[in-house]
């Protein structure tokens, strides 16, 4: 996807790519001599200088000061991302530590999400967001309702991405047998169905069990309450571990870091920022609708199971960021999640 960027000749593409790559690595203004010394040895500095002038005129580069070198504009970063993401790869050997920490021998969905957020943030050193923007697409594998002492019940919903569970207070009108019966009925009816189907079809499974429907109805409401509470508390998981990295960036300031933290604490802003329609790694820049993220980039990846998106995760950082390695980490995590969770929500680490 070229984002309607101005067309470039092959030479301009090469110069711009290496110029942005050098700037990301060195944080030094782009000069013809730097580009010639570090990458394009076969071109003269005069030729490179002319091309850099042209790229500046086209809006890809800008000068911070009259006598200084150039730095990339957001348009240049868009071009660089388009080129980089065409062949996103990762080294399995280099990311073995990520694989080891990803599930940490758990099948609890909250713990899996926590692990994903912390692992990515630790590996990339930038704030990480995990957004359950497809929670309703999770597939139910089993429902277990366990009667406890004191009119409490333990609700456990096994999904294709992990288990959701919580202990909740009942009215006291249901018995252990009611819970056992409801578990068997609900599992049989809703196995393989989505959470949205479960929440919308209370009336559809009443045929044949009318005499006990009132008891099932109460148990069912407890199941829905647990799912609702889980979603409201976990719909966006944020790890701020990498905020120090933002402050260390030459382009960042305390103010920009505060802006990012404000956005990370706003569920509606996160929902908008993390929205994506593609099943691939994608990058958005903060030069559009959300001015709080000006000069920032959002690299994100969707989690798709059984053909349906259930979540999106990614990082927020400055425009001068190592897109290739971060995209590689996100792709690795995405592939590992699909591999593990695609086996019915079980993990074998």
Summary keywords:
3 domains; Beta-Lactamase; 18% strand; Arc Repressor Mutant, subunit A; three-stranded antiparallel β-sheet; Enolase-like, domain 1; alpha+beta; 13 helices; disordered C terminus
CATH architecture of the largest domain: 2-Layer Sandwich
Which structural category fits the helices and strands? alpha+beta
Sheet with the most strands? Answer: 5 strands, antiparallel
CATH superfamily of the largest domain: GAF domain
Helix proportion = 40-55%
In percent, how much strand structure appears in the residues? 15-25%
Q: List the total number of helices.
A: 13
Oligomer: single chain
**Low-pLDDT segments:** 344-349
Shape: elongated
Based on DSSP secondary structure assignment, what is the total number of beta strands? 10
SSE succession: HHHEEHHHEEEEHHHEHHHEEEH
The N- to C-terminal Cα distance equals 37 Å
How many domains make up the 3D coordinates?
3
Mean pLDDT: 83
Give the class-level CATH name of the largest domain: Alpha Beta
Write out the strand line-up for the largest beta sheet, numbering strands in chain order: 7-3-10-9-8
CATH topology of the largest domain: Beta-Lactamase
Rg, Cα atoms, Å: 25 Å
